[in-house]
Write a structure and sequence with these properties.
466 residues; 18 helices; globular
Length: 466
């Protein structure tokens, strides 16, 4: 838990150099296209040559979350093609969009011996099962045979596993979570764009204005993906210093904060600030409401920038087809503050990275290829393509050329320049079945079938029984 706090604080300091090395002054209007690399822009072998060499052509299985609307999905495909061209090896890709089903699938794959050779996955408690089972290889063990492995990374920014305090996953890019805004909806409702001092009370007043104007204030599918609201509603009862604490009971200090946070979500639901179908809709459906100018606020992560930009393109796969005017209607800001949490205190960190599995490490035909692949994907040349407007653990973080980013990405950079802290997501520690009573059970909580206190206690009981 302390390591996650340290990682978040260190990353907050690193953001200044990673994101704003070119200065924090507002940039000139950026080109419409997103900076996702084209296939021809994948680094040449001479630029990102793998230090580890396989003995011959090898096929390795790789699973990542670079899929679907993830803004790095195409960058990942390009980088894989670059590595294949540089080494003669091939990748059998089984990537999928990250959600609870994906996490369960990964755990099941390890339990059944079907795990990939290389895995891009969470480095928090979600990985505890396969870490405890010895199914992945530590960075130190890999360095004993390949000394240059991840040597371009700042080790202080590589998160250790909460299971044993050992570092396994080499990070690529960080993340942040914040509130996206449809400014067209705000303008129609007579609501000003929220800023760095935006409070919860102001947010509630604005939601009412937006509702009165005939729009859904908040685009969220509480019956499908309540994760972000769960996180920030709880964080709003706390501070960065105690957000990563796990309650011992629903009625202790931390447990009471969790209950109060869930009750705030219930208040929003009862006021009609979520879509009418929020309990039955999918996340994709409510996201479409936001991009179709039917909802004002969308709480999500930095990865959603790509989805919003894609919704402004006539061809989602072709950045040159972007509608710059439509994209100008979207912005991103801080989640409204309440109590002792500053509005500019965000959730974020370096929560994912590349693992090499023991299965690949013990295969003489795949060991070097797996190391080579991770070295390529985490090289100084490739990481900046993925990090874009977020952050990385590179020792020599490159300066950012804002002219290479689209308008929404530049707005994200401007927003991040005002962040006062980044703290990891407590749900990454309170994982798996612990979250069922409050994640899957969110509909019952907001309609009053189950009290927030009982749902929180049920989750704590599961956590304590592990």
């Amino acid at each position: 838990m302390k390591m996650k706090k340290l990682t978040a604080l260190l990353m907050a300091a690193t953001l200044a150099s990673t994101l704003f090395g070119c200065g924090s002054a507002p940039a000139a209007e950026a080109p419409a296209e997103t900076p996702a690399a084209t296939e021809s822009e994948a680094p040449e072998a001479s630029e990102a040559a793998p230090a580890a060499e396989a003995t011959g052509p090898v096929e390795i299985t790789v699973t990542t979350t670079f899929a679907g609307e993830d803004s790095n999905a195409q960058n990942y495909k390009n980088a894989v093609a670059g590595w294949e061209a540089a080494t003669g090896n091939t990748v059998s890709d089984t990537s999928a969009t990250s959600d609870e089903t994906f996490k369960t699938r990964i755990i099941t794959d390890f339990e059944t011996g079907s795990e990939p050779d290389v895995l891009f996955f969470f480095n928090g408690a979600d990985a505890n099962d396969f870490v405890n089972a010895g199914k992945v290889v530590s960075i130190d063990d890999i360095r004993a045979e390949f000394p240059e492995y991840a040597s371009n990374m700042n080790d202080d920014l590589i998160a250790a596993s909460p299971a044993d305090g050992v570092k396994y996953a080499v990070p690529v890019n960080g993340y942040w979570e914040a509130m996206f805004v449809n400014t067209k909806v705000l303008e129609d409702a007579g609501v000003a764009m929220p800023g760095a001092d935006y409070t919860w009370d102001q947010f509630l007043a604005d939601c009412q204005k937006i509702k009165d104007a005939g729009y859904a204030p908040i685009a969220a599918a509480l019956g499908n993906i309540p994760h972000y609201w769960w996180e920030f509603a709880i964080y709003n009862q706390q501070t960065p210093a105690d957000h990563l604490n796990i309650p011992g009971a629903a009625d202790d200090a931390t447990g009471s904060q969790w209950v109060a946070g869930l009750e705030d979500i219930k208040t929003l639901y009862e006021a009609g600030y979520f879509p009418d179908n929020t309990l039955s809709a999918t996340d994709d459906e409510t996201f479409a409401m936001f991009t179709d100018d039917k909802a004002a606020f969308l709480l999500d992560g930095s990865w959603k920038v790509g989805g919003i930009v894609g919704s402004c393109q006539s061809d989602p796969d072709d950045p040159s087809t972007i509608d710059a005017d439509k994209l100008s209607h979207f912005d991103v800001t801080y989640f409204p503050g309440k109590g002792n949490r500053k509005t500019t205190d965000l959730v974020g960190g370096l929560s994912m990275g590349y693992y090499i599995t023991t299965k690949a490490w013990e295969d003489p035909d795949k060991k070097a290829a797996a190391v080579s692949f991770v070295e390529y994907m985490t090289s100084d040349e490739v990481v900046p393509i993925f990090a874009q407007h977020t952050a990385s653990a590179l020792k020599n973080a490159p300066k950012v050329d804002e002219t290479q980013f689209n308008a929404l990405q530049v707005k994200a950079m401007d927003m991040m320049s005002g962040v006062t802290s980044l703290t990891g997501a407590v749900q990454d520690l309170f994982n798996g079945d612990c979250r069922v009573s409050t994640f899957d059970g969110m509909p019952d909580i907001v309609v009053g079938n189950v009290s927030a206190a009982d749902a929180v206690q049920e989750g704590i009981d599961v956590y304590n029984a592990q």
